[in-house]
Amino acid sequence: MNTDPVATHPDLQLIALDVNGERYDVVTEPRRTLVDVLRHELGLTGTHVGCEHGICGACTVLVDEQPVRACLMFAAQAEGARIRTVESLSDGDNGLNDLQRAFTEHHALQCGFCTPGFLMLAEGFLGERPEASKEEIREVVASNLCRCTGYQTIVEAIDACATARRGACVTPCIPDSPPDKEH
């Protein structure tokens, strides 16, 4: 008797996902969204489900370092890509990363429901635009919804993190620069 779930249930498929640097083999229906697989199959509940229409941004994750609404992407579409969730920001041993600390220090969260989406949006944006101005940050964060903070503290936290990251570099920060070059 065949016990392979994919063979016995033709409505299922096996996909391999690279999430936070780990490979996961997941048997799922083709119609399952990335956010559902992350939360229910992999137990990564930091990615929140809000509107399920791609409007609120609570489900934002990075796919190949680009912010993506996980509620709008099928898990199968993410196969072969590098996925990062909010859990990837902290290494677990050293606590919060610089962006998370900036959110805490600037009181950029209240209820916290939208925070993982803002963190991943900011992480992706700062990776692409480390020299971003406050105005550019304000424009980017407008794509996510927050009912509690009024956005100003979120903008200030992201700007403070960007400024600190730039200050840590001897010359302007260049993403993905070779490690043997001073930057």
Question: What would you note in describing this structure?
Answer:
The chain has 183 residues and is of the alpha+beta class. 32% of the residues lie in helices and 14% in strands. It is built from six helices and five strands. Strand 1 (13-19) and strand 2 form a beta hairpin. The protein is elongated. The model is unreliable at 177-183 (pLDDT under 50).
Biggest sheet features: 5 strands, mixed
* Physical arrangement of strands within the biggest beta sheet: 2-1-5-3-4
What is the structural class?
alpha+beta
Q: Which residues form runs of ≥5 with pLDDT under 50? A: 177-183
Q: Classify the helix fraction into a percent range.
A: 25-40%
Q: What is the number of helical segments per DSSP (H or I, 4+ residues)?
A: 6
Determine the mean pLDDT: 90
Write a brief structural summary.
The protein is α+β, with helices and mostly antiparallel strands and 183 residues long. The protein has helices at 5-8, 34-41, 98-105, 115-128, 134-141, 152-167; strands spanning 13-19, 22-28, 60-63, 66-69, 82-84. Residues 177-183 have low confidence and may be disordered.
Q: What are the key terms here?
A:
6 helices; alpha+beta; elongated; about 180 residues
Describe the SSE topology.
Layout: H1 5-8, E1 13-19, E2 22-28, H2 34-41, E3 60-63, E4 66-69, E5 82-84, H3 98-105, H4 115-128, H5 134-141, H6 152-167
Parallel strand pairs: 1-5
Antiparallel strand pairs: 1-2, 3-4, 3-5
